[in-house]
Fold Membrane protein (TIGR01666 family).
Amino acid sequence: MVDGITAQWLQRLGAQVAWAYGLRVLLALGGAMAWSWGTHQVDLVVPLFLGVLASALAETDDSWRGRLKALLVTLACFALVAFPVAALVDQPLWFLVVLLVCSFVFTLLGAVGGRYRAIASATVILALYAALSVPQGAGDTQPWWRMPALLLAGAGWYGLLSLAWCVLTPLLPLRHGMAALYEELGAYLRLKASVFEPVRGVDVQQRRLALAQTNARVVAALNSAKESLFSRMDAQPPQGRLLQLLNLYFIAQDIHERASSSHYHYNEWADVLFHSDVLYRCQRVLTLQGMACTQLGEALRRRRPLVRDAGHAQALADLHDSITYLERQGQSAWQRPLRSLRALARNLSTLDAQLTTATLPMQNAVLGDIALFDRTPRSLADAWGRVRAQLHARSVLFRHAVRLTLALAAGYAAMQLTDPRHGYWILLTTLFVCQPTYGATVSRVARRVLGTALGLVAGWALLELFPSPTLQALLAVAAGVLFFLTRTQRYLLATAAITLMVLLCFNQTTGEGYTLILPRLLDTVIGSLIAAAAMFLVLPDWQGKRLGAVAAEALEAHALYLREIMSQYATGKDDDLDYRLARRVAHNADAALSAALSHMLLEPRWVRRHARVGLQLLVLSHTLLSYLSALGAHRGLPADVAADSLAERAAREAANQIEQMAQALRGRHALAQEDGAAEGLALALEQAADASGDGLSLVQAQLALVCRQVAPLRAAVRSLAGQGAAA
């Protein structure tokens, strides 16, 4: 029995994505501590630990080849800044010049891509670690290059561990990422099921807003899984487990398109079909499918097969039976809702079939075009082109680079006024707190100060309770591991953990743990205030003022998606790269609009005066995207859309008007009054759908919904563009 419990515990441990990360950090910090103690050189603890921290912060998910390349670039960047900083730390003016150039240049290098963004950020952090580690005072006889060399040794040690981990478990991060994707899909499907609740007076707009926000998390999980997949694919076709995970990704894309589809105004269904159980049937099917997605994610984490419950098939059969019963009633008022219900049931059946496929081994199956869009730079010229494209005042990254650089300059001035020898915590706090958006910066200010205070209190208590250096060393390692386990989700706890680790480490090397408590807290407050002031005063990037541009990108992406869908109806369904790219761009733009609004709601009241119309625009944009997703989901139906001039004209008119709205938002100019063309086409499409065959009627009905969405979108865009022009 004990063996069974142990096996279950190990299985649960293996199902957690954080355990591998935590174990690597534990080995790296524990090894560094053991080496320092074993060689009787306790003064090595701080630089080795800081090198490990910087290297771990630079780590991104990658194949072992990609990780090796990233490690070499990381060590080169670390060396490029660590040795000059250590050499110039006693020359304030030259040190400041090197620090500011490093901050500005490496922040801009983040434009090259995610991997290089992490390396660039960690390099700036290491520059401050190098300054912090160099002993100052007349009694120091060590060569100036010793501390930066130790920082690089710590970084290289963690890098080697990370590289070995990539070799031994090449697909573990990808499997966990795919599991997270299916869990997000499960949450989205369960939330979508709540839209079908046939209760009068439900706030449909609020539920659609929640769907848009949840959809943003699904899109982020899709993007993360895609990048993880791409980093492991080479010129050879994928085989074995990698091919299975690739197929699971494509299935997830299809499930997402079907899950985000809308076939009608659900609140109108609730009114027309109030006395029927059909909407409850829809709700039950979606709920069960959401649970199946979550269970599939858990099965992927634990490497065990998933056997689907027979209740899923029965729920689908009950839904079809309920629709058939309603059709037999012959109610004319139910004609259009039932047509949409049939399309919905067909969509849910296909989604269920995809879930069943996802549970099969698929050992040699290739489910379609496996091409993925490569976003990594193809050459140094391409990388430089990406950086050069950011060299203007409208660039978010450029503004952040300028803001961060000036904030560090102010932090250095404050350090010279307060504590020129030990005030580097001011600079570190400014660096960690100063974020690209106001909301993220203000949120970090509060959590940074509170987390530091908690860490210092815990450190004081532990120093009192455990005076033994051995126990303090173990606690320092544990605190470092806790920092990495919590730094992305629980920033306050992560700040407390890293504060505790540093306090214990310095107490190991200098015995000055108690004397650091108050200065560290004061430095944190000063650095946080400087970061907050920089966010207000230096090229503030208010999301409220960028809302029009972000909304314009979303509308342009929707128009492109609509054109790509209609071209597929003309040529036949093909989930090729062009179609998948148009679909992903549309969902990414919708998620970006949701994120911009979330950040805007944290900004001062005078900046977020567009909040109401912005939220309205998000709901309308996401609703439009859901109608387009339904069009895309049914591409396989036999429908002679190319021969239907009405459908072709309606799609072209809708796409043109959506693009006109985007241009008005981008140019901040007034939008002309609606000429009624879209409304007229919507009416004609609805009438044509009543007399058309099943496939064509579905396309016509969906295009009618798209055209009906044009008028409210134009009203919201006119309001936002007018306010933007006035501002």
In short: The two ends are 70 Å apart (CA to CA).
